[in-house]
Amino acid sequence: MADDGPVLALDGVVKRFGQRTALAGLDLTLRPGEVFALLGPNGAGKTTTINLILGFLRADAGTVRVRGVDAGADPVGARAHVAYIPEQVALYPTLSGLENLRYFATLAGLDLGKAEARALLAEAGLGGDAHDRAAGAYSKGMRQKVGIAIALARRAGLLLLDEPTSGLDPGASAEFSRTVRAAAERGSAVLMATHDLYRVREMADRVGVLGAGRIVEEIDPRCLDHVALERLYIERLSESAA
Question: What is the pTM of this model?
Answer without folding.
Answer: 0.85
